[in-house]
Amino acid sequence: MTARDPNFEPRRFSGPSASTQRRIEVDEALRNNWLEIWYQPKIDLKRKCLAGAEALARIRHPQEGMLWPASFLPGIDDDSLAHLSEHALLTTLRNWMDFAEAGFNLHLAINVPASALSRVPIGEIVAEHRPRAESWPGLIIEVTEDQIVRDIAPAQKIAPALEACGVAIAIDDFGAGYSSFSSLRDLPFAELKVDSSFVKNCAADATNAAICQTAIDLAHRFGSVAVAEGIESMADLQALAVMGCDFGQGMLVAPPMPKDRFLELLRQRLNRPPRPQAGPMGASAAVAAAG
Questions:
Q1: Distance CA 25, CA 116 (A)
Q2: What is the DSSP letter of 278?
Q3: Cα 252 from Cα 255, distance rounded (Å)
Q4: Strand ranges in 163-268 using DSSP code E only, listed in sequence order
Q5: Residues of the chain with pLDDT > 70: what percent?
Q6: Which of 127, 172, 204, 222 could share a disulfide with 142, CB 3.0–4.6 Å?
């Protein structure tokens, strides 16, 4: 949930220009209940179905309107990042039950900065507030590659306790940082998320295709799954499926959306017969096609 995380920058999801907005402090937004958690669907590329969603922060300001993270994350201090992380964690755990009641057992993920791993009692929060349903698949904590490699000790220390309470670690923005494979070897992680800069045009760009294929193969060698971020074209989606990528998300699949909108689409999906769709996504991914 850092300022450089592309999940929180408008280069992937268009939004209001930060230059036109006054800076809103995260703690101010939390005090006034302006902060919202939106969800972007994640698709299983092999089974052609909705598999989960990533939680993303937004601020709905009464005067400034909807604010994207570029408006409130740059320059944020570690304490405020920890408060935001805890809010996102608690909200996502609560929202899982609403999605489950709609008939969808989704694997939800949230972004957490490396600094929050030692500041936020993630294991204790999850142990106390996690859904008690036997079907709960656990939670994914996404930490960017550059952060986790630069300061891997806290993640190594906390990983076993997180795993014990159903929380897995994902390496986010893989390929954009300066990964040390020897460091990653010592960290148990469940997902390797291929950075969107390499996913874009991977169907036609040989270099991007090679990087995507290498990341996918590496994830599988580690016993993890590969997730492609920022999929924007059907050609790239098809190429990633051929490469053996496990999951994908991006504007082609669905944009981030408020929780109520996402829940509405889940309920609609259960209440109508499947419609044939062109392309590899199939009818079961119709919920992700709407914004």
A1: 18
A2: S
A3: 8
A4: 167-174, 191-194, 225-228, 247-248, 257-258
A5: 80
A6: 172
Max Cα-Cα span within the chain: 50
Q: pLDDT tens-digit profile of 235-256?
A: 999 999 999 999 999 999 999 9
pLDDT digits (tens, 9 = 90+) for 91-117: 999 999 999 988 889 999 999 988 888
Tokens coding 186? 């010592």
For 41, the 3-state DSSP assignment is strand
The token pair at 157 is: 């220390």
**Segments making up each domain of the chain, as ranges:** 6-288
pTM of the shown model: 0.82
Per-residue pLDDT at 85 exceeds 70: yes
* Mean pLDDT taken over the chain: 83
For tokens 């969800």, name the residue: 39
Annotation: CATH topology of 6-288: TIM Barrel (3.20.20)
DSSP 272: S
Q: What is the dihedral of CA 166, 172, 174, 180, to 10 degrees?
A: -60
* Exposed / middle / buried, residue 207 (Cβ in 10 Å: 0-12, 13-18, 19+): exposed
